[in-house]
Amino acid sequence: QVQLVESGGGLVQPGGSLRLSCTASRTIFSIYTMGWYRQAPGKQRELVATITRDANTNYADFVKGRFIISRDNIKKTVHLQMNSLKPEDTAVYFCNQERRYAYENTYWGQGTQVTVSS
DSSP letters along the chain, please? Predict the structure, then answer.
């Protein structure tokens, strides 16, 4: 069973930065697209950013220019550098390993809380 463990969340003031990490185990990490999603209270989970096996990235419009997703295939880790944080970025952030084929599973981490508040 694939395991994804997020870390790096916390409380930060508006305009501040945080770096989230997600470490995978029991997976051939390098061949999968990895993603970060978030879910705020009372809202649906939404895509934040993805990074393919070839390190091609995709960002939601609301984080473009502020967040950067990266990966380290040796350490089986995906990072999300979050800059210029806003109160509306407050949410639980989840790491995701996307399935490549229909017969595979999509895996999620347990989430890490990010709170942006003064």
Answer: --EEEEE--EEE-TT--EEEEEEEESS-GGGS-EEEEEE-TTS--EEEEEE-TT--EEE-GGGTTTEEEEEETTTTEEEEEE-S--GGG-EEEEEEE--SSTTSPPEE---EEEEE--
